């Protein structure tokens, strides 16, 4: 005899208690807030620091440049008189010429040498690559004061190494810090020695990001190393090279420490301002002379605008040459 049993339908689940529903809704709300607003909290420290030490000084300097600002007295609004004064200031134009001269003698050879060294370090046949990469970066971590002391001894008029070498070939001693061209060369050599390795490593990182398949295909097609460099490396390196050019432009237009130490702390950059840069002239007007702080602020903003224009020109030139 078989028994037919009927199963009772399952009873409906009990609704969650109000406390559980409240916790769930609060958790979903916190999750949405975390996803939506936590990224802003992560980047907020940068903007706070930039606002305090970057944006505010720029706005403050722009406001000072519109005034006859005396650091120990009153200041009155004079509009753009400080900027119009720049056009008739022979010391400003002298500093501008010195800045561009040192910039040309340092940046152009520096970038060409950095490009050559980066391409050499990127070769597969080179041994002890890590050692050479560390060695080429060492000048950048050396104190700039130590660099200035060493180069100051090398470029001494009476007992300097370079004048001794020139004397071996019958050339009279050069007064390196007493003439414009010789001081430009001495300071630019110091800049090149410090920053060539830094730019080399940046360019090397860009080269190592280029796919190796391109070189292998070019080698199969019969392209030699020189043709691979011009047809593959340079076009693919354009973004990195543009970044290095702009970075070098900013540094070159703000050159201050090397010429100041080369002049043994003389803010004039030589007895006749032979190598006073724009940054040194800004320091002279804005800090050394307390009664011309407004004019020094105008010089600072002039430097900023020059950097923008020169960086844009370099960007366009690099972009056109890479096409």
From TrEMBL:
Family matches, as InterPro entries: ABC_transporter_permease, MetI-like, MetI-like_sf
Region of interest (Disordered), ranges: 1-25
Biased composition (Pro residues): 9-18
PROSITE patterns in the cross-refs: ABC_TM1
Keywords: Cell membrane, Membrane, Transmembrane, Transmembrane helix, Transport
Listed Gene3D superfamilies: MetI-like (1.10.3720.10)
Transmembrane segments: 40-59, 91-118, 130-155, 295-318
Location in the cell: Cell membrane
Main subcellular location of this protein, as a coarse class: membrane
A Pfam family reported for this protein in Swiss-Prot or TrEMBL: BPD_transp_1
Residue span(s) of domain ABC transmembrane type-1: 96-316
Family matches, as SUPFAM superfamilies: MetI-like
Domain of life: Bacteria
Family that this chain belongs to: Belongs to the binding-protein-dependent transport system permease family.
Protein name, UniProt field: Sugar ABC transporter permease
Upper classification of the organism: Bacteria, Bacillati, Actinomycetota, Actinomycetes, Micromonosporales
